[in-house]
Amino acid sequence: MEDPKMGPGALRDKLKKKYSVDVPYDRVARGKLRALDMIYGKWDESYELLSTYQAELLRLVPGSVVELETEEHNGDVCFLRFFVALKPCIDGFLKGCRPYIAMDATHLTGRSRSQLTCSELG
After folding, report:
1. Residue 22 · residue 16 · CB < 8 Å
2. Strand, coil or helix: what is 120?
3. CA nearest 21: which of 36, 33, 31?
4. SS percent in the chain: helix, strand, coil, step 5
5. DSSP class of residue 97?
6. What 8-state DSSP symbol labels residue 57?
7. How many other β-carbons are positioned within 10 Å of the β-carbon of residue 28?
8. Cys-Cys link to 29, which of 8, 74, 90, 105 (CB 3.0-4.6 A)?
9. pLDDT in tens for each of the 122 residues of the chain?
10. How buried is 81 (Cβ within 10 angstroms: 0-12 exposed, 13-18 middle, 19+ buried)?
11. Across-strand partners of 118?
């Protein structure tokens, strides 16, 4: 909990120093993943909440465009993409505050190795 970004190697060294126990690297890595699941919840469960998040956005900001795209793999429903365009942003774009669209992306690390793309309508 003190440092969730601490890697398994550093965590292993800390365990050895504090408790004088030599724990195998793979066991430390698995233990860290289990601990993070206990602290923050499981990743799979957070994806299941996206449909609820979509419904809440549409309820709170009517006229917005919120699309959740999934696909089926071997009987399991898998997350593919989530798009959000809030109504005030759409209105601002249509009124033409400034005539440009900026696109940017960042690489995601960790379990979801992909890209997060965002656009700025100005």
Report:
1. yes
2. strand
3. 31
4. 45, 25, 30
5. S
6. H
7. 20
8. 8
9. 788 889 999 999 999 999 999 999 999 999 999 988 888 888 778 888 899 999 999 999 999 999 999 999 898 888 889 999 999 999 988 887 666 677 787 877 777 777 777 776 65
10. exposed
11. 104
Calculate the alpha carbon distances from 67 to 3, 33, 47, 85 in Å: 35, 30, 14, 9
Which candidate, 112, 121, 42, places its Cα nearest to that of 82? Answer: 112
Tell me the residue type at 86.
L
Q: Distance between CA atoms of 120 and 122, rounded to whole angstroms? A: 6
Q: Give the rounded distance of the alpha carbon of 61 from its chain centre.
A: 22
- Short-list 46, 42, 68, CA closest to 55: 68
**φ and ψ at 115, to 5 degrees?**
-125, 145
* pLDDT at residue 122, rounded to an integer: 55
51 contacts 58 by C-beta, under 8 angstroms: no
